[in-house]
Amino acid sequence: MQANHGVFIEQGPSDWQIVQQDGEGWGAFTVSGRYAMPADHSRPMVYIRLVQTANAAPVARHLDWQPVETRADGAWSATISGIPAGGLYRLETQLRADRPPAQGKAYCPEWAMRGDARDFLGVGDLWVIAGQSNSAGYGKGVIEDPPELGVHLLANSLRWRLASHPFNDSTDTAHPVNTEWANSGHAPWLQFARAVKRAVNHPVGLLQTSLGGSPLKRWNPREGQPGAADLHDNMVEVVRAVGGKVRGILWYQGCSDTGPDESATYLTRFTDAVAAWRDALGNPGLPVITVQINRVTSPQTDVAHEGWTRVREAQRQAARNVPGVIVVPSSDLSLSDHIHTSPAGNLILGQRAAEAALDRVYGLPRDWRAPEIDRIVLGSDRRRVTFTVSHVSGALRSADDSHQPFRIVDSSGVVPVERIAYDGARIELELGRTVGSPATLTLGYGAHPPLLPVDMTRNLPILACEGMPIEV
Fold it and tell me: Which of 53, 160, 310, 351 could form a disulfide with 88 if both were Cys (CB 3.0 to 4.6 A apart)?
């Protein structure tokens, strides 16, 4: 039963909510409602304050009890600004008024009339979860990946809660457009948020908008018919519902665009999608952390193998050509079925994305960049190819010497590779025949490529690539 006196919050932050800090490390809450007091009281005034949830101490002197706009019609409103990034905080209200003369003076602050409260609030950074099933989280299995105070989730119900798996739970959803067909499972983003929160020392809020199986065209309003990009529209609505500002987007998508037409245009369409997101959210430099898609182990056609290869190359090129787009690899991560990253793999992937964000978004130096082939040179005998790899902290090695992931093609077709030699950040291939010109190299061909070489120091695989020219 609701109290019949005091202060009632009707609009404003909800329990567990994280608000996006501004560029200077401050946040604000706007809150309003109504108040009620006994008829024999007079001169009502609503007061509000913000305290630490852990110990009830005021967050700052200017955030201790302060009067707010209190109208005679029973309404009140306030904007609490200058809230430092951090938390968790508790928002408290109270009603002070003059008592009847027979009862003495007005209520003192500690015994003022009760008011509603909101708890477990934070000021920090919001990250959008977007993309398809590996972003929504379809990893199935048991692993230790517990919730942590200060890492909160705006669920599909548009209610904030402590972040825990599954993220894409469609119970009581407020936006059916991304309702999952089946129950989702484990996602990489709790580990991402936990690692970021611990490093930057302020809360992280996650906004769930992803959907399993969704193609890029549902996220890109610059292709297709008006209204066809329904998941883009939903993402924008969710962001606007929490104030319109976020720190970045977490994007894992591409498996649904491995068809011949979609894969051939993926780079252009993804570039357009990023521009559309930034335009809609009013942030031309909005960071987008992407994942180079992993693999599918079910049988595939030759056309599909080519499509998976092209999408990976498009994702590598997007990070090279679109400012603010960041890519991390996933080719070495274990699966829990034929296509979905396992919970163990998701923990690694979330940490990789966090390291990238800490370096590129937060300016905290991290050695996160995946190795990437720079230059490929054909030897004078035309039977030997040498190439250097950037971003190698230790030495490159293969986790599976029984298979080789390099594919060289010239005008006569595929050139057999007879031997692979690793020397630090340098790789040399001995070939089964002479190579004609022009010739190209692809690393990680197909829907289910052999394991790619890794930087042994960081256990980080080389980014897959397609059709890189071989210099003569």
Answer: 53
- The verdict on 343 and 413 lying in the same domain is no
Output the domain CATH number for residue 14.
2.60.40
Peptide bond into 149 cis (omega under 30): no
Region 210-218: mean pLDDT is 96
What digits encode the pLDDT tens for the residues 373-408? Answer: 999 999 999 999 999 999 999 899 998 888 889 999
Number of structural domains in the chain = 3
DSSP letters, 339-405, are SSBPHHHHHHHHHHHHHHHHHHTT------PPPEEEEEEE-TTSSEEEEEEES-SS-EE-S-TTS--
Sign of CA dihedral 335, 302, 316, 394: positive
Same domain, yes or no: 131 and 76: no
In contact, 325 and 336? CB cutoff 8 Å: no
**Statement to judge: residues 94 and 140 lie in one domain:** no
User: Do 315 and 459 fall within a single domain?
Assistant: no
What are the residues whose beta carbons fall under 8 Å from the beta carbon of 172, sequence distance 6 or more?
156, 157, 159
| Residue 55 structural domain | 6-115
Q: Yes or no: say if 95 and 45 are a contact pair by the CB < 8 Å rule.
A: yes
Cα–Cα distance, 248 to 114 (Å, whole number):
39
**Is 63 found in the same domain as 150?**
no
Place of tokens 């090695």: 397
Contact in structure between 315 and 254 (CB atoms under 8 Å): yes
Q: What is the pTM of this model?
A: 0.94
For residue 205, being part of any structural domain is answered with yes
Tell me which residue of 461, 310, 322, 309 sits closest to 389, measured CA to CA: 461
The rounded Cα 198 to chain-centroid distance in angstroms is: 16
Strands 288-291 and 248-252 turn out to be: parallel
Residues 296 and 395 in one domain: no
In a domain, 365, yes or no: no
- Does residue 452 sit in helix, strand or coil? coil
Q: What is the pLDDT of residues 284-327, one digit of tens each?
A: 999 999 999 999 999 999 999 999 999 999 999 999 999 999 99
Question: Is residue 18 within 8 Å of 123, Cβ to Cβ?
Answer: yes
Q: Which amino acid is at 88?
A: L
The bridge status of strand 86-98 relative to strand 460-461 is: unpaired
Residues 136 and 231 grouped into a single domain: yes
